[in-house]
Every structure is written in C-alpha cells, then in structure tokens.
TrEMBL record:
Site (Important for catalytic activity): H141
Entries under Gene3D superfamilies matching the protein: N-(1-d-carboxylethyl)-l-norvaline Dehydrogenase, domain 2, NAD(P)-binding Rossmann-like Domain
A Pfam short name: 3HCDH
Catalytic EC class: oxidoreductase
Catalytic activity of the protein: a (3S)-3-hydroxyacyl-CoA = a (2E)-enoyl-CoA + H2O; a 4-saturated-(3S)-3-hydroxyacyl-CoA = a (3E)-enoyl-CoA + H2O
Binding sites annotated in the UniProt record for CoA: S50, K57, S120
Name of the protein in its database record: 3-hydroxybutyryl-CoA dehydrogenase
C-alpha cells in the first residue's frame, strides 16, 4: 500500500491550496505548484490563516499546525515534483490544459506515482489517455473548501486499477474525509445534480421569476440549504460552473444542461464570483472577511 510520504498539488487556487493544507496536516511532505507566482504567494497566506483558525478553534494543536506549515513547499517548476507519490491536479477546468499537464507529468514523476485530478466534471478516462499509466489515473474530487467539507468523490476511469482506487480512498480517509465512488460520466454524482439546480436558478433570474435575493432565500429556507444556489455559484466561481455545464451538455448530449445565457454573459463580463469581488452579487473585501453588499 502506498504511503504517500510526498504529495504534490498543482494549482494554488481555492481548491489546490485547501488540498495542500489537508495533506500537510495529515503528515505528508507537500509540494504546491502553480505557474503563477502571485497565486503561490496568495496560497501561502490563506493556508497559514486557515491553519491558524483551526488552532484557535482547538481543532488542531499548535504543534501540528506549525509542523504542517513547515512541510509545505511552493514551486513553479514541475521537475520539483519528481519524487511525489501522488500528484493531485487542481488547475483550470479545461480538458486540453489538463491533458497537456498530465502528459508532462507522466514523463517527470516516478513510475509508481498516482496522477489524480480534482476535476469537477471532465472524463478521467480521457485524461488518462494523455499518459502511459492509465491504471494509475483517478479522479479525486474535493468539495469547496477542502479543509472543511467532509466529502471526497472518487472517480474510476475505465482503466483505473483496484490498487490505485484503494490507495486513493485510504489517502482521502487519512485526510478525514468520507468517500463516495462514482462511475466516469460527466459531472459524476454531485455536479450532475447540483449544476442543473444552479443553472435553473440563473434561468429563474434571467426570465424575471424573482429577484436574486428571493431565489436564494426561497431555496435556503424552503429546502434547508445553507446557501442559496446563486450565492453558491458565486462561491464556486461562475467560470467553474459554466465549464461544468458545458461538459454536462456535451458529455450527456441533453439540451437541458445548456448553460443559461445570463451565466454566460456574467462570465464574459469577468463577473466570476467571490474570487473576483463580483458575480451575481457584489462583495467588499476587508482584511478580515469579504461581505455581501
Ligand atoms: N471552485 C470549486 O468550488 C471547485 C470544487 C471542486 C472542484 N473544483 C475543480 O478544481 C479545479 C480548480 O478549481 P479552482 O476553483 O481552485 O480554480 P482557481 O481558478 O481558483 O485556481 C486554479 C489555479 O490553477 C493555476 N493554473 C492554471 N493552469 C495551470 C497550469 N497549467 N499549471 C499550473 N498551474 C495552473 C492558476 O494559476 C490558478 O492559480 C478545477 O478543475 C475545478 O473544476 C472546483
């Protein structure tokens, strides 16, 4: 059974930074890679703040927190990942970009390493074709934010081996997560069900059924969800939601998944949600928190 002494995470955005934090807290040496030095700098700050919050709440000892931060290394050089036992990719939701990365990784990392993708919707089977190790390619879909959310959805590609599945499941459980397993169809379990709901909320707004506030309040209070669907879309990132809907639409071939024109327009306008300060809602950032206007 793989020990995962060295974990590499690629993409230091909202997902990758959280996954790197989980791995470091769980005791692995961690490389966090991003092509953008600014993203690495931001990730270092947000991981440090997040670990501090866990310590302040008594959910992590100060010693474990300090050691976790010491185990994290930041880089933009793929060669630094060559000793990784597993690489978890969390870059932009684009099949072409992910495939290119997987092909490069396949040449650099050791033969026994597992290549995992945190993709929200893209076929693991197709990502695996970019490598010569399809049996060691798997989907490891964390929820946002990874340090808090309890679920990891594991997706087996057509050639993923039992050994890779068992090792990846064990790692997710070492991170304190509950695992569900999905077959490799667009959107897997969670986004197959969640994204049509978010898309429908955009249609309700687009066609003037109700205000954004009433759509969110209706779903929050009426169906006992912690966040309304439009607020959740802002949290996930409207660009990420749009990419997933496009994958559902093309992968499942049903017009019901076609992205709402309003969602497309917001993304075209750069209104990507919380991470850009504006999406369906506007956000003001203060050093302590970003609040909804
Ligand atoms: N946002 C969510 O709620 C959520 C939830 C689950 C899964 N995901 C998936 O996780 C992945 C990342 O999403 P995110 O929200 O963290 O995105 P993000 O935009 O916050 O971060 C992506 C990061 O990847 C970096 N990057 C892009 N291409 C790269 C490359 N070729 N090499 C190295 N770094 C590169 C970018 O610089 C950026 O820092 C996507 O596949 C997304 O579908 C997102």
């Amino acid at each position: 059974m793989a020990e995962f002494k060295v974990v590499a995470v690629i993409g230091a955005g909202q997902m990758g930074s959280g996954i790197a934090q989980l791995a470091a807290v769980a005791g692995s040496d961690v490389w966090l890679l991003d092509k953008d030095a600014g993203a690495l700098h931001g990730a270092k700050g947000s991981i440090s703040n997040s670990v501090q919050r866990f310590v302040n709440k008594g959910q992590l000892s100060k010693e474990v927190g300090i050691k976790a931060l010491e185990r994290l290394k930041y880089t933009s050089n793929l060669e630094d990942l060559r000793y990784a036992d597993i690489v978890i990719e969390a870059i932009v939701e684009s099949e072409d970009v992910k495939k290119k990365l997987f092909a490069e990784l396949d040449k650099i990392v050791k033969g026994s390493a597992i290549l995992a993708s945190n993709t929200s919707s893209i076929s693991i089977t197709r990502l695996a074709t970019a490598t010569k190790r399809p049996q060691q390619v798997i989907g490891m879909h964390f929820m946002n934010p990874p340090p808090i959310m309890k679920l990891v959805e594991i997706i087996r590609g057509a050639d993923t081996s039992d050994e890779t599945f068992t090792a990846t499941k064990t790692l997710a459980e070492r991170f304190g997560k509950t695992v569900v397993c999905s077959r490799d169809y667009a959107g897997f379990i969670v986004n197959r069900i969640l994204m049509p709901m978010i898309n429908e909320a955009f249609h309700a707004l687009y066609t003037g059924v109700a205000t954004k506030e009433d759509i969110d309040a209706g779903m929050k209070l009426g169906t006992n969800q912690p966040m309304g669907p439009l607020e959740l879309a802002d949290f996930i990132g409207l660009d990420v939601c749009l990419s997933i809907l496009k994958v559902l639409h093309s992968g499942l071939g049903d017009v019901k998944y076609a992205p709402c024109p309003l969602l497309v327009q917001y993304v075209d306008a750069g209104r990507l949600g919380r991470k850009r300060g504006i999406g369906v809602y506007s956000y003001v950032k203060s050093p302590k928190q970003s609040s909804r206007l």
